[in-house]
Amino acid sequence: MNKSTSATPARRSDATRQAILEAARERFAADGYERATIRAIAQQAKIDPSMVMRYYGNKEGLFAAAVAIDLKLPDAGSLPRGEAGRALVTHFLHQWEENEVLTALLRVGVTNDAGAERMRGIFSDQLLPLARRLCPDPEQAPARAALVSSQLLGLALTRYVLCFPPAVHLHPEEITAWLAPTVQHYLTAPHPGA
User: Fold this and answer.
1) What are the Cα distances from residue 153, in Å, to 102, 107, 149, 165?
2) Dist CA 109 CA 64 (whole Å)
3) Torsions phi, psi for 115 (to 5 deg)
4) If you placed Cys at 86, which of 10, 55, 82, 180 could pair as Cys (CB 3.0 to 4.6 Å)?
5) Which Pfam families is this protein grouped with (predicted)?
6) Is 37 exposed, middle or buried (0-12, 13-18, 19+ CB in 10 A)?
């Protein structure tokens, strides 16, 4: 069999999967998890709904695949401890500006248990190791990672989802100047009860 002939179905399959995921991200972002339907996603991807089910099994499987997110956090080993707050705020601002999937997940997460669980998992799996490396007491890392998440997710909610005009109009440098000291404090300050 000709190599180009055998590669064609695989490329077609990859293209179909990509079209489904792109349509799913748009529908979940626009409609939320509950109102987004397999039929609407398939229609937007210009495929039969049975193809969505074939590749992803059900709506929950599709949602999990559509919002698989690598936060691409800075490497904890190369991050100067005293600059962690600034680096994280700057990094997350860039992520929120560039990654519509992250914003879609936040929208779904505030209204749906599956979305909230997915967001908790992403932040726990990816932010917790960084907090463990930076905080003075590794046993406090989960609480400190949760506090950092509250700042970053709160900013994202007000700036990118609810679109509070003052939050939307703040320059990224100004946001960093306000939030970085707080995030730094959460990560590296001694425990308040100590």
Assistant:
1) 10, 11, 6, 17
2) 12
3) -70, -40
4) 180
5) TetR_C_16 (PF17920), TetR_N (PF00440)
6) middle
Residue with tokens 């609480």: 143
Burial of 52 (0-12, 13-18, 19+ CB in 10 A): buried
Integer Cα distance of 143 and 88 in angstroms: 17
Mean pLDDT in order along the chain per 10 residues (194 residues): 56 88 88 89 95 91 85 84 94 89 81 83 91 92 95 94 95 97 96 80
- pTM for the full predicted model: 0.77
Residue 132, CA distances (Å) to 30, 76, 121, 167 in order? 36, 9, 16, 30
**Helix pair 172-188, 113-134: axis angle to 10 deg:** 70
Q: Is the alpha carbon torsion for 81, 85, 89, 90 positive or negative?
A: negative
User: Contact at 8 Å (CB) between 155 and 167?
Assistant: yes
